[in-house]
Amino acid sequence: MGMTGLFFLSSGLFLGWSLGANDASNVFGTAVASRMVKFKTAALLCSIFLMLGALVDGVGAAHTLGALGAVNAIGGAFVTSFAAAFTVFLMTKYGLPVSVSQAVVGAIIGWNWFTDSVTDLSSVVKIASTWVACPVLGAIFGALIFALFHKISKHIHLSLLQRDALTRLAMIVTGAFGSYALGANNMANVVGVFIPVVPFTEFSFLGMDISPVHQLFFVGSVAVAVGVYTYSYKVMMTVGKGLLPLSPFASWAVVLSQSVVLFIFASEGLEYFLASRNLPTIPLVPVSSTQAVVGAVIGIGIYKGAAKNIDWTVFLRIMCGWVITPVITALVCFVSLYVMKNLFDQPVHTPKTYIISHGVLKEFQEHGIQANSLQSLVGKSYETGKAIVADVKKHLDLSNKQELLILKYAEVVKLKIDPTKINKLSDHLFSAEEKENLAALSGKEFNYRWELEDALILKNPSWKKQPETVLNKKINNEIAEQYKMIEGVFKWEPQD
User: Fold this and answer.
1) Half-sphere exposure of residue 357, counting CA atoms within 13 Å on the CB side?
2) How far, in Å, are 148, 206, 224, 267 from residue 61 at the CA level?
3) Residue whose C-alpha is closest to residue 38's, from 236, 321, 225
4) Rounded to an integer, what distance in angstroms lies between the CA atom of residue 20 and that of residue 228?
5) CB contact at 8 A, 33 and 236
6) Phi, psi of 357, rounded to the nearest 5 degrees
7) pLDDT number for residue 495
8) What is the pLDDT of residue 83?
9) Model confidence pTM above 0.90
10) CA–CA dist 179, 222 (Å, integer)
11) What is the pairing mode between strands 445-446 and 415-416?
């Protein structure tokens, strides 16, 4: 990796440092504030298990926020991460626990705003709804867990020293689990925007192939660990002591409640279990561990009848931080993108081209968009998503979902199947039969992704995605990963 790549990646490392400085408070803040766990011990355990979570499970969540916008230039990725990191750092400086997910969402929306890209509003609403659900669920689970284990403890006769030792052990184990979950869920927020433009190359170590993405996640996790050690103490004290003084037992209940909330919104296994039994599912969206912890503290305080002891001034400060974080980040990102592009002459966005052809109109029609009135737009070329959507809206009323469909089917992506490149496709992702399907299309050129997809489906129906249900999610994700790799291998630019 050259110096340029390292420079651009530095903002992701800054964001990782900010995550460690701020969100470590969510898993060990109450333990440290109640003096059940020393800060140095908490920092060490948090760093180790956070790194494990990032490396073992973090890669799978790397595209969680992808529906909001795909930052497709390394200059744009640098600015997006910098805007999120700067905002988190600013809040951390004043001892306010904020959500890195909120900051990243705000930054991506700022990037969309600057580049005239269309934002998936349904994804924004889904993610933003968790900013309300998280503290509420945290409060509910906090009160329930505290009440349940408080009653159980009355039937267990332990000395004070034994009780303290058991509580300390429980806080350490729960904090380690919470740290693992934090790394698994939030590392994608730290370095996820760099995945399309990752500045690393694959290499082998002790017989293992280390992918660029795993290298990216390792570097990000090191930055998080540094943040935990150097700057997390102040926020730990805000969460663990400033809002409501907690007993060691209540502190443990807070951390366990937060871990349960994270699990509910992050577990594909739970989602599949519920769907397979025709039960309502819970959407898998990025959630804020900060909000879950604060909600749990409030819930326990209300259950204990100690609501009057809650420092509502601190709570209002935290709430204000939640509200203004995505707004500030979006503004910082927009201004920073302007400076990066115009002052430093660095590309922050790879241009896309959208062309409406007769074939595209047919795709529109098949997906519920009344395309009869769009014949006059055939052959027109557009340089931004908002431009083509605005032109189509002169003829049709569109929902946000239909806007995204228009962008999906009208985007020009030139692909040419070169038989000499088929061996570059992963044997893990592609069967021999699927490689034969591609080989049968050797020499063919396609102007749109859907043209290649249609051609492959004719060769083998297994290339077709299933109806979008929870039970079909795994197979559809695998097919999407295949198409993504095909595009990376066979994308080409015709010579003038």
Assistant:
1) 14
2) 33, 26, 17, 11
3) 236
4) 4
5) yes
6) -110, 175
7) 64
8) 92
9) no
10) 14
11) antiparallel
Q: Record the tokens describing residue 401, joined without a space.
A: 């979902």
Cross-strand pairs, 355? 381
In sequence order, what are the residues at sequence separation of 6 or more whose Cβ sits closer than 8 angstroms to the Cβ of residue 66? 192
Half-sphere exposure of 91 (CA within 13 A, CB side): 33
Q: Which backbone phi and psi does 98 adopt, to 5 degrees? A: -125, 170
Of 382, 241, 319, 329, give the one whose Cα is nearest residue 18: 329
pLDDT tens-digit map of 200-244: 766 667 766 676 777 888 888 888 888 888 878 776 766 655 566
Number of H helices, E strands in the chain: 18, 6
- Neighbouring CB atoms inside 10 A of 428's CB total 5
Q: Are 262 and 289 in contact (CB under 8 A)?
A: yes
Say which residues have a Cβ less than 8 Å from residue 128's Cβ, sequence separation at least 6: 105
Distance CA 319, CA 429 (A): 45
Residue 23 vs residues 19, 234, 289, 441: alpha-carbon distances, Å = 5, 11, 8, 50
For 280-311, the DSSP string reads: PP-------HHHHHHHHHHHHHHHTT-GGGS-
Please spell the DSSP secondary structure of 137-151, one letter per residue: HHHHHHHHHHHHHHH
Domain ranges of the chain: 2-342, 354-410, 415-490
Paired tokens of 145: 């867990």
Residue 315 vs residues 90, 295, 308, 327: alpha-carbon distances, Å: 18, 10, 13, 19
Average pLDDT, the chain: 84
Contact 258, 296 (CB under 8 A): yes
Q: What is the pLDDT of residues 158-173, one digit of tens each?
A: 888 888 888 889 889 9
Taking residue 484's Cβ as centre, other Cβ atoms within 10 Å add up to 13
Beta strands in 344-400 (DSSP E): 354-355, 381-382
Distances (CA, A) of 74 to 79, 113, 192, 458: 9, 17, 12, 37
Contact indicator for 214, 55 with CB cutoff of 8 Å: yes
In 352-490, the DSSP E strands lie at 354-355, 381-382, 415-416, 445-446
